[in-house]
Predict the structure.
Amino acid sequence: MENWSPRTLAIAAGRPDGPGEPLNTPLVPASSFGAGGEFTYARSEGTPTWVAFEEAIGALEGGHATAFASGVATLSAVLDLLPVGARVAVPTFSYAVTRGVLAHAQRLGRLTVTELAPTDTAAWVAEAAQADLLWLESPTNPTLDVMEIATIAAAARGRVVVDNTFATPLAQQPLTMGADIVVHSATKLIGGHSDLLLGVTVAADEGLALELRDARTRVGSTPGTLEAWLALRGLRTMPVRLREQSATAALLAERLAGHPAVTRVRYPGSGMMLAFELPDAAAADKVCASVRLIRSATSLGGVESLVERRAWLAGEERVPPGLIRFSVGLEDPEDLWTDLTAALDA
């Protein structure tokens, strides 16, 4: 498309533009189409709704997008392209489900998995010379570590995948840094309203994108039409949502850093995700139980603010027990701060 900014692309990409066309791609709940057209069967070619969403995300990331039923389904598709015995590296602090899927594959003898500290760039560069796949995540979930994507990618022998869910393509575009594939849980910031499950891959190479699409077809991890339509609608407002949420997150991170009950604040300097630590699990649990406006719940990226003590989850035993992940929503920042301080002072 033209040299439009990401904010403009989020609005304009994937829209019908012919005479008499609707301004927004409609929801097309079809499994089959008449012979001779662009679409034949939804599982194989998708639907106009899927394709519009894929075009928009592809334009934002600068690659070729494929939508999936969930974020985890993108991981399964990427792994489907690897031979048995392939070597995969993943950050020690990263999405627990990602590490769980990889650990399961290793137990079955399918893969060899190496875990590395996300900020140990030298270790990642050394591993890059041996690994078949580097699965990067930046910022990491839930510790908000920032990885040196370009440096690691430049040293890679195999493929480089970056989970860009926290940053979104508005903050970073890993394909421009040397990554081969970007993945998103569109359930989170892209959808933005906690009402859908969807994942998406974006490949720099069109041939690799076709391989991922074939993998989607083989395992049947196709997105729902309603979910794709909702995600596309959510994408249109992501720039303004993220701008407001990021401003609030930065304000709250600064204030939390000065609160006597808080031992550490993790905030990468931008974005709407942050984490803060309390002395122990009991203190963190009490805060999560005491907030009233903020909800204590899993997931992230919606318009509502959510907190969760991550160490209680299986696979998150390494996370500091008092760490609370905070997904900052669109509420008034002063109301959020009043709610937080009341819970911290309780």
Notes: The chain has a mean pLDDT of 96. The first strand starts at residue 64 and ends at 68. DSSP finds twelve helices and twelve strands in the chain. The longest helix spans residues 225-257.
